[in-house]
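Entry 12.
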Amino acid sequence: MNLRSLALAPVLVLGLALPALAEKIPLTELSGYLNRLTTVTSEFTQVNPDGSISTGTVYIQRPGRVRFEYNNDNTLVLASSGNVAVFDPKSGGPQQYPLSQTPLSIILDANVNLGRANMVTAHTESKNATVVTAQDPQNPQYGNIQMVFTANPTQLRQWVVTDDSGQKTTVILGEMREGGSIPASKFSINNEVARRN
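Predicted 3D structure (C-alpha cells):
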C-alpha cells in the first residue's frame, strides 16, 4: 500500500462504513462546539486535488484566522482580516482572495449557525462519526465543506473542501491542542510579505 492509499484510508473508511448504532450529533451541538473553539493547534495531513500528500501544522484562532505551515516546503496559507493569502515559492507575491469566498469561512465565522436555512446540505452518521456538508446559503457557487466530527467529547477530525471549480482538498487533523495563545504576528499577511521580500 503506497503513501497515497494510506492517507486516503481514513476518508474512505468514513465514506464506505455501514451505519453504526451511534446517533448523529445535532447541528445545534456542533454549532456550539465550533463557537466555543477559540485557539487550536494541530498537525495535519492534506490530500491535494491531484492526489499528492502534504503534511504540516495548522494554527486556528477563531474567528477568522488560520495558518497552514507545510513541512519541507516554503508554501504557506494564511487567513486573516477577511482575506486568504497563499504564499507559493513558485510564484512571486501571494495570491489573495476574500475569505468569504471559500468554504473554510464557515468554520472560521464569528457565529457558526449550522441551522441556518439552506446551509447544511447533508447531515449523516457513519462509523461513529457525524458528517456534515455545509455551504454559504447565499453563495452556494463558492463550493462546500464536509466536516467530520467524533463524539464524547465532540471534536472536529477532518474536513473536505470542494472549491468553486469542483476540486477537493482533504485535511485530516492529528491531536488537537485547544486553548493557549498564538501570537497575532503568526496571522499577519503583511508581516509574511515583508519577511519573504
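Annotation: The two ends are 42 Å apart (CA to CA). Residues 31 and 112 are 5 Å apart (CA to CA).
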